[in-house]
Design brief:
The complex is a heterodimer. By secondary structure, chain A is of the alpha+beta class. In chain A, the strands form eight sheets. Chain A has a seven-stranded mixed beta sheet, sandwiched between helices. A six-stranded mixed beta sheet of chain A has the order 13-23-22-21-14-35, with helices on both faces. By secondary structure, chain B is an alpha+beta fold. The termini of chain B are far apart. The chains are: A alpha+beta, B alpha+beta. At the A-B interface, strand 1, strand 5, helix 4 and helix 22 of A face strand 1, helix 1, helix 2, strand 3 and helix 5 of B. Strand 1 of chain A pairs antiparallel with strand 1 of chain B, so a sheet runs across the interface.
Chain lengths: ~950, ~280
């Protein structure tokens, strides 16, 4: 057959007709353009998220003629004449007269199945497809259906519960708690403690939420970074001007020379060392040396190899040993020995105590880089407005971004406005700058709006990771199990730049004892530079690593004593009056013993069941049960970290809540409002939330260190109480009077104040407005009381600690080395559970990340920079999680509340690793416990056993 | 400078092969390997989108073969009633990526992409499958074992389309099993995988055995020495017991981020034993 020229079209411009969400559309697009892009950019359906562009994450799942597919893998030309359904169309989609999608969205809200919301559209679409075909799915069907959508926040269990809830099968099995009454308003003064649906939930389930990549000004230019392909390289630019001239559509390039202020930033001012663009030498693979800016299509089509830069690869320091070797080249001239910083906590006489101890055990552990794998890659846009710069991007720390961008541009912080978008997963990595400096420099020079969206690979190679740790420890106890001493030291691979290395080095020595009374203690840490991607903050700032070492050591001590491992922990648990390793006596709110005791019933039952299983097991499967404890200080370590909350009474009787705690999915929008509502005595529906935009909301610090419930929550409580007093004062009523915000009492913009028999209506419309535009503005600041640590690390590092303990039940395939976690029971002392559903969400999500860290997650710079080589747990890997909430109130926290965000992840990995030892008698020294390593350890143990046998024989 | 992409979506196979004969082009079908391979680059070549060729879809019975159209998706394989010997292929279909991938990914794409970890290959190798390639020059058939020649290398000529997978008839009643080992439950690239087809006499004795292992060499391998030794073996004594380390000689695994070569050999040995035992139980 002869082929006519006409039938082969340039893939540029074609009219393609299909149906989206029941509506006929015709788009003008390259037929090869990924459907995800066309949906988002041509049709404005940004509910479909792009997480990887490779089918590895499923965030972009849409229905194609009713079947779930990844929109990132579909050529738009392939959907001609088809029906596409996106998250925006789920509620309106009916099959046989019923809208399963709409019911599912409601169930997601009530179950707390959406946290950050980045995977939610994909989850909802995938699960809708299941329920339309199978209205009564079992748990396994639900897992199969969402197995192709990754979630980093929830741990999947609440998603599965929501799906089964919509299905008609009995949802009572497998730890599925039906959501009851979550949507009902609690009324004034009763918000705290209620399972309220998250206040920002609706826009997370209907696709309306705006994340970093979801909003871009029309005509914005695209920014693309040119990054080092080598761990260390010298580089030289060619003719950059000619490059721009030869590439129509490219407007500009930027290099270190173009940074208007200081080409150096960092999250901790005195350690700032990271350039926007490397100068002369790139210190890690993925470091930016230049950026190109131009029309989006041109920038995207650019062959990076065409950019005129030549690289000269240089020898690099790729691990701790190389960096610490005598005479090793210095990565930063001013940091001798490549040591960024040291941490130290010393109490008692550890050497003497270890000499005197009846039982001494020692250990050595290594952990690898762990990638945050937020489903939303970093993204945002910037524009210059006169002499100001505005940056809208996903971030955990708007005010820190503001101050660093001001330094980079050489302008006053007040001239920088940071507008945080919804954050599609943060976990610490979005505390550091990513796209912002590039956007700022480009928008500043060009005076035009610019945007930047990281690809998954770019996100993995260039953003921070959990610190790899090399840990050594020796611990001793008496023959009756009383802990005497712990000698701990750790080196953390902090990569090429400081990021949060100093924080990790400072936090770990304070926490490496675990939540136990250890009279003699020495913990020494170092953060060490290498030519690898910077390690930064990741849920727990190093404490999840040290817990892996310390909790396994305690198991070994208990075994040597011949004591039950849980009883050993209970015996040594910190109490209200016992001093911590920094000499702090908390006085009250030390809930670790209660957490450990809460695990006793399941522990005893699980031990029995495991023993029985193993006794009867003929094949390769063996089971084990493990426990681990945790404590974690809320807020910055011995450093101020205030939050300021502003609330304003509006003329219509509503309350504006300026709460700057960025909600990264954990729920601070809801928690802080619940606290403020009860402090003020107003119903939650009266509140209008304002975001952490630095132009409109005071500084609530960063969303990290498990501080927002405690610090911002407390500020919100104080601000609420203050507003209440101000209203009462205005009404001339006494403190015991009540304010009625309820609709029935509210007429003509008035509030009713009842003081004994008297009832006074305040007509708000008659009052003048203050400088903030409110009838009354109330502002309060809270900074948790701490004290500096002395040269031995003694002092009060945190005002409040959260406590917890996890129990893991696992099954090991001894022939393959695979580990399946069967159940996790998690007891956490949260002081006061402000919103139990959100707290369970944190616990389940923490368990999932801890499980990943224990069993599968390790990033090797330069290898597997994607989400099919770097594995995070999928829906089928997470067992039922039973959360036990202990409420031992903190005297400081709002309504007694403590943090839970990082606490939740810490004990999971050590509990699993202890269970692994319980099951098959091996202690892995290198984490994660991949099938490969588990099997090797089992073989080595068998070999050692045989040798012993021979020797005896 | 960059080459402009072009796109054509032929409606018939004749049109498709004519397009390919007219100039080199990449073939796009389900897109599940095409787009991931792009990374953050854009398409710069001529593309022939064969996804509209309805004639290449579905399974049909022919006198000597069972014919699986090249565009048949993994989901379609799962839904189609097929003889027992296809059980392994159906199990593999469930393990390809995710539901989303299974709904788009095609047989032809899986084979032509020729990943060492392609889930579809071991079951088809164990079925002695052949592939059919069409071009304007004509149609040819090659055994699958010869078609894939290396890591992402096949014998497909640039002007050819893989139109069908042909499974010879005769073993329809044989039992078959597929086992996959990965480091997580879903969306996982295999560390090792094994497909077994067993024809038993009276559920007691092996008449014919085929064993294929994937992810442990550049191209999935049949273990022919083991297959020969299995003939006549007694099910009661456990077929797994027949397997020895030497039988894995055709494998040449590598170290990568998923596992070491040593582990792959060790695990494959267990997987082959288990697959044989489980297949025999169902036999």
């Amino acid at each position: 057959m002869a082929l006519t020229r006409e039938s082969r079209v340039e893939a540029g411009e074609q009219s393609i007709a299909f149906r989206v969400n029941g509506r006929a559309v015709t788009v003008s697009s390259s037929p090869l353009q990924r459907l995800s892009r066309v949906l988002r950019e041509e049709l404005g359906l940004t509910g479909t998220k792009v997480g990887c562009d490779a089918g590895d994450c499923g965030a972009c799942t849409v229905l194609l003629d009713g079947d779930p597919v990844c929109a990132c893998l579909l050529a738009t030309g392939q959907v001609e004449g088809c029906e596409v359904t996106t998250v925006e169309g789920l509620a309106g989609r009916t099959v046989k007269g019923a809208s399963v999608g709409g019911r599912l969205q409601q169930a997601f809200l009530e179950h707390g199945a959406a946290q950050c919301g980045a995977c939610t559209p994909g989850m909802l679409v995938a699960a809708t497809a299941l329920l339309e075909k199978n209205p009564a799915p079992h748990e396994n069907d639900a897992m199969d259906a969402i197995g192709g959508v990754l979630c980093r926040c929830t741990g999947y269990r609440k998603i599965i519960a929501a799906i089964l809830d919509v299905g008609t099968k009995d949802a009572g099995v497998n730890n599925i708690v039906p959501a009851s009454g979550a949507a009902i308003s609690p009324g004034a003064g009763a918000a705290v403690g209620r399972r309220l649906v998250r206040l920002d939930g609706k826009r997370k389930i209907d696709g309306a939420e705006i994340f970093g990549a979801d909003e871009t000004p029309v005509s914005a230019l695209a920014v693309r970074a040119i990054r080092s392909p080598y761990h260390r390289a010298r580089f030289h630019f060619g003719d950059l001007l000619a490059f721009v001239r030869d590439h129509p559509g490219i407007e500009a390039f930027f290099t270190a020379k173009d940074v208007p202020g200081t080409n150096c930033y960092g999250v901790i001012g005195k350690f700032a060392d990271q350039p926007v663009f490397a100068e002369d030498e790139a210190r890690y693979r993925g470091e930016a040396v230049a950026a190109v800016v131009g029309e989006a299509a041109v920038v995207e089509a650019l062959e990076v190899a065409d950019f005129p830069v030549s690289w000269e690869e240089l020898p690099s320091l790729k691990d701790l040993d190389a960096a610490l070797a005598t005479g090793a080249r210095l990565i930063h001239e001013n940091r001798p020995g490549n040591v960024l910083v040291r941490g130290r906590v010393v109490r008692g006489d550890v050497d003497k105590a270890l000499d005197a101890a009846d039982i001494v055990v020692e250990g050595e552990y290594d952990t690898g880089f762990v990638e945050h794998a937020c489903i939303e890659p970093e993204a945002g846009f910037a524009r210059r407005v006169g002499d100001q710069i505005e940056i809208q991007a996903c971030t955990q720390s708007p005010y820190m971004d503001r101050s660093d961008i001001a330094t980079i541009l050489g302008i006053a912080p007040e001239r920088v406005r940071i507008i945080p978008t919804a954050v599609g997963g943060g976990f610490g990595t979005k505390l550091d700058l990513s796209v912002q400096p590039f956007l700022a420099v480009a928008a500043w020079h060009l005076g035009k709006p610019v945007f930047m969206v990281y690809s998954r690979t770019e996100s993995i190679v260039s953003t921070t990771k959990r610190h790899p740790a090399h840990m050594r420890l020796r611990g001793g106890c008496t023959k009756d199990g009383k802990l005497l001493a712990l000698d701990f030291s750790a080196d953390f691979n902090t990569g090429a730049y400081s990021s949060w290395g100093p924080t990790v080095s400072a936090r770990v020595p304070v926490h490496a004892s675990g939540p136990y009374y250890v009279p003699h203690y020495r913990a020494l840490t170092r953060a060490v530079h290498t030519n690898l991607v910077p390690a930064g903050a990741f849920r727990g700032f190093g404490v999840p690593q040290s817990a892996i070492a310390q909790e396994q050591l305690y198991d070994e001590l208990a075994d040597r004593v011949g004591m039950d491992r849980l009883e050993f922990r209970i015996l040594n648990a910190l109490e209200d009056h016992t001093p911590t390793v920094t000499g702090q006596v908390l006085g009250e709110g030390v809930g670790i013993r209660a957490c450990l005791e809460a695990l006793q019933p399941r522990w005893r039952a699980a031990r029995r069941e495991v023993a029985e299983f193993n006794l009867n097991a003929g094949g390769a499967l063996r089971r084990g049960v493990g426990v681990a404890g945790m404590w974690y200080g809320c807020g910055n370590t011995s450093l101020p970290n205030p939050s300021t909350v502003r609330i304003g009474l509006k003329r219509d009787g509503r309350i504006a809540l300026h709460q700057g705690a960025v909600d990264i999915g954990q729920g601070s929008n809801t928690i802080v409002t619940q606290i403020c509502a009860d402090a003020l005595g107003a119903p939650i529906e009266r509140f209008d939330l304002l975001s952490g935009d630095t132009a409109i909301t005071p500084d609530c610090g960063k969303t990290s260190a498990s501080r927002q419930t405690l610090v911002t929550g407390k500020a919100a409580q104080l601000a609420g109480e203050k507003l209440r007093s101000a209203i009462l004062k205005l009404a001339g009523a006494c403190d015991c009077a009540s304010i009625h915000f309820d609709d029935r009492d509210f007429s003509d913009g008035g509030l009713t104040v009842r003081d004994g028999d008297k009832s006074l209506v305040l007509s708000l419309r008659d009052f003048p407005l203050d400088e903030h535009g409110y009838v009354i503005t109330s502002e309060a600041t809270f900074d948790p009381p701490t004290s500096p640590l002395d040269e031995n690390g003694q002092g009060v590092p945190y005002a409040v600690f959260g406590f917890g303990a996890h129990l893991a039940e696992i099954e090991v395939d001894t022939e393959l080395g695979t580990v399946r976690v069967l159940k996790v029971t998690a007891a956490h002392d949260v002081g006061r559970a402000i919103n139990p559903t959100l707290i369970e969400g944190q616990i389940e999500g923490g368990v999932a990340q801890g499980l990943g860290m224990a069993l599968m997650e390790e990033f090797f710079p330069g290898k597997g920079e994607n989400l099919h080589d770097y594995l995070i747990p999928s829906a089928g890997d997470i067992p039922p999680v039973e959360s036990i909430l202990i409420e031992d109130p903190s005297p400081i926290g709002p309504f007694g509340a403590k943090g839970i965000g990082e606490q939740a992840v810490i004990p999971t990995a050590p509990a699993i690793l202890n269970a692994l030892h319980d099951a098959v008698g091996i202690r892995l020294r290198k984490i994660p416990a991949t099938p490969n390593r588990v099997r090797a350890a089992i073989l080595a143990a068998e070999k050692a056993e045989m040798k012993k046998g021979e020797a005896r024989g | 400078m960059s080459i402009k992409a072009s796109y054509i979506k032929p409606r018939t196979l004749d049109e498709a092969v004519a397009t390919l004969a007219a100039g080199e082009a990449r073939i796009l079908s389900g897109g599940t390997d095409f787009y991931p391979a792009l990374g953050d680059r854009v398409v710069r070549e001529a593309v022939v989108d064969v996804s509209g060729l309805g004639e290449l879809r579905g399974v049909s019975n022919e006198t000597d073969y069972i014919r699986i159209g090249g565009l048949t998706t993994w989901s379609e394989i799962m839904r189609t009633p097929l003889p027992r010997c296809f059980d392994a292929l159906k199990s593999a279909a469930r393990e390809v990526g995710s539901v989303q991938i299974q709904n788009r990914g095609t047989m032809a794409g899986n084979l032509c992409n020729a990943s060492p970890a392609a889930d579809g290959v071991p079951p088809l190798l164990a079925l002695d499958a052949e592939v059919e390639l069409a071009s304007q020059r004509g149609v040819r058939r090659i055994p699958l074992a010869d078609f894939i020649v290396g890591n992402r290398k096949t014998q497909r000529k640039p002007d050819e389309i893989l139109t069908a997978v042909l499974v010879p008839r005769g073993l329809e009643d044989a039992a078959s099993t597929f086992v996959k080992l990965g480091a997580r439950r879903y969306l996982v690239i295999s560390i090792s995988m094994v497909a077994v087809v067993l024809l038993l006499q009276d559920k007691r004795q092996v008449l014919e055995a085929r064993v294929a292992v994937g992810s442990c060499s550049a191209v999935a391998q049949r273990l022919r020495v083991l297959e020969a030794e299995l003939v006549g073996a007694s099910v009661r004594e456990g077929l797994g017991a027949v397997v020895r380390r030497e039988h894995l000689a055709p494998l040449s695994p590598i170290d990568d981020v998923r596992a070491t070569a040593e582990y792959r050999m060790d695990a494959s040995l267990r997987l082959v034993q288990r697959a044989l035992n489980s297949c025999a139980e169902n036999g």
